[in-house]
Specification:
Elements: H1 3-19, E1 22-31, H2 38-42, E2 52-54, H3 58-70, E3 75-86, E4 91-100, E5 104-112, H4 117-123, E6 131-139, E7 149-156, E8 160-166, E9 176-187, E10 189-195, E11 198-203, E12 210-222, E13 227-240, H5 242-248, E14 259-272, E15 283-293, E16 303-315, E17 320-331, E18 343-345, E19 360-361, E20 364-386, E21 391-410, E22 424-436, E23 440-449, E24 454-460
Parallel strand pairs: 1-4
Antiparallel strand pairs: 1-2, 3-4, 5-6, 6-7, 7-8, 8-9, 9-12, 10-11, 12-13, 13-14, 14-15, 15-16, 16-17, 17-20, 18-19, 20-21, 21-22, 22-23, 23-24
């Protein structure tokens, strides 16, 4: 028998076995998305009709697609299954079953004027005079195209009006969209300096020490399933009063200025393949920002900075996982920055556990966070059915986590009377975490910092 005949016989015998693992997607059916358009779900999938898939890796592939669907924030539950399988032609129908989340949230505002709950409760004794109230209206899926509208009308300690809208996707593959925001606020009290790494405030009974206005728009592009890019242009106007600008801190806006008006341009690059956005146990995340504040002549501010954030998560088993985050900011332009714009750690998500009562100013910073999490509860909480709202159940996860953090802030201009900058700081502790409906995370932390201060802290929607 010739070599050619042997090859032909082997191909005849083994080719059906090789191809029997392959299936062809004949159709995709969507169930349960009463409001959401099919294309919003389809753009989260890494396969399409007529694609050939490997049946052996199908379960893991369905799992990653389910995670992306849940990370849209539009659904509280999702599953992918084979509905029909023609064993002769290997053509299959894939069924995607969904439970839509609540899209409309008319939320009464009971908001704090301070940086976080812990500062308000411990340093201002939970004073109700430092509370904002009003109404916030959120529709996260206005036309069923993942276009979110948020309107905030707030009075009280810090009156605020804010409108944000993420427009529907457009263009080839629905990969582009605009976001628009208008923001105005005024504060009866404003911080004007940092002393012993804590904010010092000035309150006025006759005017508002701080007024802020922002008008911005961004163009977003989803390059791949995991890769996002955006360019944002903002006009920003901030004003203070004479007491702060001339007496308390002439460096507040620099040179005793009462106001600063400037354009800001930002480029953002994000890579995200985490399994769950607010409670990840597997995957990676990278965020690179380049921000130029001050464009043109007669600049009130002139800064150019780059911020990089990297995250990695490792599943150790079904309930046990670990993760770490590195975040760094470097200022390329080294000109003196107005005190108001010199924030480093202590605002928003830029903080270290155990240092919730402190702020650290600076041009540059680096911090590292590590956590190890054990999930001891993972279930659906059943409700009495509500026909009008369609509420039947809510996913609930609870875990305990060990955490450790360290940071360094380079404070070039405002380090006088502040000792936490220009040195390494660190903390560690335990957290009790609860995730509701795959989107809302509540954390109770017990932390100890390098000053040997031990405290309990409450956080909302944080990842670490």
């Amino acid at each position: 028998m010739t070599r050619g005949c042997i090859i032909i016989i082997c191909l005849f015998i083994f080719t059906p076995l090789a191809f029997s693992r392959q299936i062809i997607v004949d159709s995709i059916l969507y169930q349960g998305n009463k409001k959401t358009k099919n294309y919003i779900i389809r753009r989260e999938l890494d396969f399409k009709v007529a694609d050939t898939l490997d049946s052996e890796g199908l379960a893991e592939r369905f799992k990653s697609n389910r995670s992306r669907i849940l990370n849209t924030g539009l659904f509280k539950a999702a599953s992918l299954n084979i509905g029909r399988w023609d064993t002769e032609t290997h053509h299959v129908t894939i069924i995607i079953s969904l439970q839509e989340a609540w899209y409309i949230f008319p939320v009464p505002i009971f908001d704090l004027a301070d940086r976080n709950f812990n500062v308000w409760w411990n340093e201002f004794n939970g004073s109700l005079s430092r509370v904002n109230y009003g109404m916030k209206f959120i529709h996260s899926n206005l036309t069923g195209q993942q276009d979110a509208l948020k309107v905030t009308a707030q009075v009280g300690y810090s009156p605020k009006f804010n409108v944000e809208y993420a427009w529907p996707f457009f263009g080839k593959n629905r990969a582009w969209r605009f976001k628009t925001e208008i923001y105005y606020s005024r504060n009866k009290e404003s911080y004007y300096n940092t002393v012993e790494d804590k904010l010092v405030f000035h309150k006025s009974e006759t005017d508002y020490p701080l007024k802020r206005f922002r008008l911005g728009t961004s163009l977003d592009h989803r390059t791949t399933l995991q890769l996002f890019q955006s360019v944002r242009l903002e006009y920003i106007s901030n004003q203070t009063n004479r007491t702060i600008s001339e007496e308390l801190n002439p460096d507040f806006f620099l040179a005793g200025n009462k106001s600063q008006n400037f354009l800001s341009l930002r480029y953002n690059f994000i890579y995200d393949d985490r399994d769950l956005k607010y409670f990840p146990s597997n995957g990676r995340y990278a965020d690179i920002q380049i921000v130029k504040d001050g464009i043109g002549k007669n600049l009130a501010i002139n800064t150019l900075a780059t911020t990089i954030q990297l995250e990695q998560y490792f599943p150790l088993n079904a309930r046990h996982n670990a993760g770490f985050m590195l975040k760094a900011k470097g200022s390329i332009i080294r000109d003196k920055v107005p005190y108001y714009n010199s924030r480093a750690l202590g605002f928003g998500e830029n903080y270290l556990k155990g240092y919730e009562y402190y702020v650290i100013d600076g041009l540059d910073f680096l911090f590292l966070k590590f956590r190890q999490r054990y999930i001891f509860l993972d279930r659906d909480v059943q409700f009495r059915p509500n026909k009008r709202l369609g509420i039947k159940s809510m996913p609930l996860q609870a875990s305990i986590a060990a955490h450790a953090s360290t940071a360094y802030v380079n404070n070039v201009f405002y380090s006088t009377q502040n000792t936490l900058s220009n040195r390494w700081i660190y903390s560690s502790g335990l957290s009790l975490e609860t995730l509701l409906s795959n989107t809302s995370l509540i954390q109770i932390d017990c932390s100890i910092n390098h000053l040997k201060q031990i405290g309990f802290y409450l956080h909302f929607r944080e990842q670490f």
